[in-house]
From TrEMBL, chains A, B:
<keyword id="KW-0560">Oxidoreductase</keyword>
<keyword id="KW-0285">Flavoprotein</keyword>
<dbReference type="GO" id="GO:0033540">
    <property type="term" value="P:fatty acid beta-oxidation using acyl-CoA oxidase"/>
</dbReference>
<feature type="domain" description="Acyl-CoA oxidase C-alpha1">
    <location>
        <begin position="326"/>
        <end position="477"/>
    </location>
</feature>
<dbReference type="InterPro" id="IPR055060">
    <property type="entry name" value="ACOX_C_alpha1"/>
</dbReference>
<dbReference type="Pfam" id="PF02770">
    <property type="entry name" value="Acyl-CoA_dh_M"/>
</dbReference>
<dbReference type="InterPro" id="IPR029320">
    <property type="entry name" value="Acyl-CoA_ox_N"/>
</dbReference>
<keyword id="KW-0443">Lipid metabolism</keyword>
<comment type="similarity">
    <text>Belongs to the acyl-CoA oxidase family.</text>
</comment>
<dbReference type="InterPro" id="IPR009100">
    <property type="entry name" value="AcylCoA_DH/oxidase_NM_dom_sf"/>
</dbReference>
<dbReference type="InterPro" id="IPR002655">
    <property type="entry name" value="Acyl-CoA_oxidase_C"/>
</dbReference>
<feature type="binding site">
    <location>
        <position position="173"/>
    </location>
    <ligand>
        <name>FAD</name>
    </ligand>
</feature>
<dbReference type="InterPro" id="IPR037069">
    <property type="entry name" value="AcylCoA_DH/ox_N_sf"/>
</dbReference>
<keyword id="KW-0576">Peroxisome</keyword>
<feature type="domain" description="Acyl-coenzyme A oxidase N-terminal">
    <location>
        <begin position="47"/>
        <end position="166"/>
    </location>
</feature>
<dbReference type="GO" id="GO:0005777">
    <property type="term" value="C:peroxisome"/>
</dbReference>
<feature type="active site" description="Proton acceptor">
    <location>
        <position position="465"/>
    </location>
</feature>
Length: 672, 672
């Protein structure tokens, strides 16, 4: 420790307080001393920071924010869901007319990537219902045709999808099959005589369920089904099961909008949020689908009527290959989560800087700003720091997405990390929305102030495109063998060491500790796995699967998975901090350094998984808490530019982020 | 520890796994061993347990649940808030006709307390909007008249309120003044000439805000205002400020329903939940209020035109005395929170016992029940145990409410503990709703399955009747002097002790540790307070207030407040367990014992505040985690009766708690 006398053991605190009563030199609390010695002031310009976050050129971002001032984008509350759905369709069509396309809908070589990234990114601040509808149509539906469809199918259907003239949906999930899509029951039988596929819903649990845009909006659907090929000549022979394939199936008449023959459509009904998306249920009664409408890049019946597949007989790998779009969707969810967190934090912090409560001695005297309460700072600023950290992690995984797709190791890393990030980013969003909602008191519930509404609309993010808990199982399963016992370095020893403040604040120490935490949790998990295997063997059931074992040790599995992803986030943050510090100058510490220090030390101070492991001695642990106190103070000094740098425009923030007294005058403000 | 060899140090786990490969005796994991040696099976009958929870005679409870089958109580979704409000008015009127009155509306000596407790309790399972409307009218409005009004006022207005013929509201909060109602700006000036009070809203921040039932429903309002008495003869003399008083003010014409002259009413607008309650905003423009309409039990202008008060000049104490109703409301919130947690847990557990996902080797094979995953159990069962614990705490605070009101020490304890319980119970509810929502996957969002809707409607519980964070400040402030350094016993030493399983599972050990945690946090907080005081003194600002100091050490303050309340909850639970064990017989452990053990050990294993303090040695801490594993196993064996005992009837549970496949057939289930 920098100065051993500054340890906050209670004995020393008492001593300090006693001696203060004896002489006149002021006793100083550890946080005051830290601010003077270990934490230099921060040099911060919101514009420069904003450029670090979102790039120097933000033309298209700003353009999009301008478009959102169109009356079509006024927020609506207290309207039936049918109206929200219609409005969302209009908004999507309007944007498509303006030239909006998500990145992946552009021809690969002729693309102003940055433009489309900016537009997409900017939209996500606005409304998760609109993002989700766009994601279902442009991401899942359009993306599947583009990734898996033949050229003819693409040439016919993509232009119609481009303009949202013929909206589509993506029908994988069934009533009985969500997290485990491999269990779906919808069937596609190849019919030799007719030369087409026949799609059928065999029972109630096989109905397609939750299909975004299916209830009202979509004319077309990408339908996932188990493919069966009958024996070409012997009808008594059981058909050959080829696993899951995707089919492009018209579900509504293009002129009458009625369901087509053989197709039954129902609404999933009212939801506690996201009612701007019409989720539907679909049944198929022996619907004939022409051969070319199978999205058969990786497998299907060829012109000769013979099934052939890039993956041969490996049904499981084929399905994985077909679903690469879903991983891309997860990256999108991480980015939107962060943007919505930024919006909520901007609202709550701005309100905290204008809202006063308590602290006056008499009626009429100015009360204390709630943002000046340390308790309020502790509630919001660590979330702010984590949002900064995640911002760079989401950008990094997006770069990994765009990297070489033939590198299988990279692909696997992309799949695993994007799954893990999706969990932590969306959970962080839900935590942030709850904390900011409460931080705004009753105002947080008022729809026009957005936070309550965002809570309702974003809750689903923990579930769709992969349930968060299941995603962390994916991470544990996907990574545990990268940390084979033999490859785990001997455990570092952090205890009984006295670290100076500058060490505790340094990227190296923080990253080392996060890394150590991965190794230590991998170590414990391996030991537990070995024990379970040995036990199973002794009991004569040696074929126990890894899934089962990981579940038996679910606390350890989840701890390990989180450790891997938290480390990834911190290391990407540090990489960015290093990059940016070489490009900026001036004295004092940089805002990214401040955010990274708070983010990492807050975890070391508060993360239940980390503190239970006692990697650090108690005095060091106490010193970390004091450092956190100092960092929160520095954040508070700079809080306005720190949230301004997010660049969320005023029209997306709601009245409490601005002049909320004026917004509440009696005249003309009825029922907002 | 019972058996030292069973410690799960990684070295030992490795050894066990290695030796298993060498001989044929099965290695056993610590949880298996714990189940055989330390945790006897549980004897459990849902009915007996239900009687323990809710009493032997549940006639009125069952009666109420029956009433809720009336079509008027069908859940409505996707309807405008105006319709929800009208429906809630109808429901309240209907119940009033059936004879429903909350406990406190009955004449004190002539009351079937148990009857009204049961009815009130049963209602809270149904809908928080209806509870809140009833709470605003019968609790806050009615209660204020009854507690503070003259006999004449009571005789006139209570009968009209009884039947909900003349609904009323309670107008304390203002746009500018929420958590700190002492800062309200609405003014009441005594007018000597006219012999009445004149109520006025001096500016925009003084508008009454969030007033439940004010926007549409209420004819009357209890309006809180700063009372000023002018000098009887000298108009140039500044008026004398008497602090806050309550006035019964008609706000709408009883026949036309229009706002009365001088009263402006606006709607607070759409909210992210609880839209069945019409929250409104009120302005008063020099509205005359007759002398007798001041609710002046503790202070007001007498017939001679002279101000007199039970509390003399102590404005602050007078306000506290007048607000005792709010504390009663907090008890009600704790009870409802627990009931809603029970409902959500029942839904999620029943779904978990019918929902299958993963684990089949081929399409069509039965998958694993999600409730069989240990990960899923870890997510839900500790919340179940805490709900059991809280159930008894809420009952205990209700008994304290009914105790002798002249005992000032008891009254203070009631105020402080009810504030703290309100925070922890409502936060527990929000955690439970989030966890159960996610545990049901997408189905958790479907309005008809209730959880998502309850989330939206209950979010406000963390804010109204006292913001949770502010409530914990109240606890810290109210209790820290009960733990004066001189009165704190020398800290017990738990470290370096090896506890047997039976000790770790015992009520005594668990309560001792919770108690120790209070003392240890009080100790740290006192040291910090002393330091701050000494520092302030040395800096020449010795008058620093306790509020400010507690905020400076906000982490310690909140830790201390939580410790006090958690200990209260555990000790009430243990008291009940002891009582009930003497009245039951049979072998095996009792369900309350199981729930208490899991509740307490889960906190010792997971509570961030406790584990960071390292009260226990690491091997003991690891053993506790293993014991938790064993307890979760025992809970799983008994999970059906454990939730059945809550007695939430099927019609309040939604389709996923029952036959959700049948509820989703294509025919007749459109848009549920
Ligand atoms: C609003 C909305 C829109 C959607 N849009 C679409 C769409 O357009 N197209 C589409 O195809 N699908 C869509 N979905 C479906 C979505 O992808 C699924 O909801 C998601 O995959 C989760 O499946 P589930 O809801 O069936 O939950 P389940 O899989 O039933 O999960 C329930 C619970 O079980 C737990 N669980 C499951 N497996 C395990 C395990 N092995 N171990 C421990 N716990 C486990 C989970 O953690 C979860 O808490 C949408 C869903 C919603 C709610
Ligand atoms: C739906 C609804 C119904 C209601 N019904 C009624 C009603 O019928 N009648 C009525 O009179 N009122 C009613 N209320 C008002 C309710 O009691 C207030 O909302 C509540 O007291 C909180 O006040 P606030 O919303 O102004 O939040 P604020 O007091 O502004 O609090 C905002 C934030 O500041 C924080 N904060 C405040 N003080 C401190 C501090 N000292 N230290 C640290 N942090 C602090 C809080 O923790 C909170 O997070 C209702 C409110 C709602 C939302």
């Amino acid at each position: 420790m920098a100065n051993n006398n500054s340890a906050t053991s209670t004995a020393q605190l008492r001593l300090a307080s006693l001696s203060a009563q004896l002489d006149t030199t002021a006793p100083r609390d550890p946080v005051t001393e830290i601010l003077e010695t270990s934490l230099p002031p921060v040099r911060l310009h919101a514009d420069a920071l904003s450029a670090l976050l979102d790039g120097q050129d933000q033309t298209w971002r700003k353009w999009t924010f301008e478009q959102l001032k169109h009356p079509l984008f006024e927020y609506q509350y207290n309207v039936p869901k049918e109206e929200l759905v219609t409005r969302n369709q209009e908004r999507t069509r309007h944007l498509a007319k303006l030239g909006f396309r998500p990145t992946w809908t552009e021809p690969k070589d002729n693309i102003d990537k940055d433009k489309f990234m900016q537009i997409q990114d900017a939209l996500s601040y606005f409304d998760n219902g609109l993002s989700t509808l766009n994601g279902a149509h442009f991401g899942l539906y359009y993306g599947s045709i583009r990734e898996l469809g033949s050229e003819a199918v693409q040439n016919k259907w993509l232009p119609l999808a481009d303009t949202f003239e013929v909206p589509g949906c993506f029908a994988l999930t069934e009533l009985g099959h969500g997290s485990n899509p491999r269990g779906i029951e919808t069937e596609a039988h190849w019919d030799f005589k007719e030369g087409c596929y026949i799609i059928n819903t065999p029972n109630t649990t096989a109905q397609k369920y939750w299909i975004g845009a299916a209830a009202e909006t979509a004319y077309m659907s990408v339908v996932w089904a188990q493919l069966y090929i009958p024996h070409p000549t012997d009808p008594s022979h059981p058909p050959s099961h080829k696993g899951i394939h995707a089919f492009l199936v018209p579900i509504r008449d293009l002129t009458t909008r009625s369901p087509l023959p053989g197709v039954t459509i129902r609404n999933c009904g009212s939801k506690s949020g996201l009612n701007g998306v019409d989720n539907g249920r679909l049944w198929f009664d022996h619907v004939k689908v022409p051969r070319h409408m199978c999205l058969d890049k990786y497998g299907g019946v060829n012109e000769q009527g013979v099934y052939e597949s890039f993956f041969g007989d490996n049904n499981d790998q084929r399905f994985g290959g077909q679903l690469v779009n879903l991983s891309e969707g997860r990256v999108g969810l991480s980015i939107s989560s962060d943007n919505i967190s930024k919006t909520a934090l901007t609202i709550a912090v701005r309100y905290g800087l204008t809202r006063r409560q308590f602290g006056a001695r008499q009626v009429g005297e100015l009360e204390t700003l709630i943002m000046d309460y340390k308790l309020h700072q502790r509630r919001l600023y660590p979330l702010l720091a984590q949002t900064y950290a995640q911002h760079f992690a989401a950008r990094a995984i997006a770069r990994l997405r765009d990297a070489d797709k033939t590198d299988l190791k990279l692909l696997k890393q992309f799949h695993v990390i994007s799954s893990g990030l999706k969990s932590l980013h969306t959970w962080h969003l839900l935590d942030t929305l709850q904390a900011t909602r409460e931080a705004c008191g009753g105002q947080g519930l008022k729809s026009s102030n957005r936070i309550g509404q965002m809570k309702a609309d974003c809750d689903v993010m923990a579930t769709y495109e992969g349930d968060n808990q299941v995603m962390l199982i994916t991470v544990a399963k996907g990574c545990i063998n990268d940390y084979k016992p033999t490859r785990i370095p001997p455990l570092a020893n952090f205890t009984s060491q006295h670290f100076s403040d500058s060490t505790l604040l340094s990227p190296k120490f923080q990253l080392d500790l996060f890394q150590h935490h991965i190794h230590a949790s991998a170590h414990r998990l391996h030991a537990a796995i070995d024990l379970s295997r040995a036990q199973a063997k002794a009991q004569g059931t040696p074929n126990i699967g890894l899934d089962k074992i990981l579940d038996t040790h679910s606390a350890l599995s989840q701890e390990f998975a989180r450790a891997v992803i938290e480390h990834w986030i911190l290391s990407e943050f540090i990489a960015q901090e290093t990059l940016s510090s070489s490009s900026t100058s001036g004295t004092g510490s940089s805002p990214l350094t401040l955010m990274r220090q708070l983010h990492a030390l807050w975890k070391l101070d508060m993360d239940q998984n980390i503190i239970r492991r006692r990697y650090l001695d108690e005095p060091v642990q106490e010193r970390i808490r004091d450092l956190v106190g100092g960092l929160l103070h520095r954040v508070h000094e700079n809080i306005t530019p720190l949230v301004d740098a997010f660049g969320v425009p005023d029209h997306l923030l709601g009245p409490i982020a601005g002049d909320w007294v004026q917004a509440n005058v009696a005249e003309g403000s009825e029922d907002i």
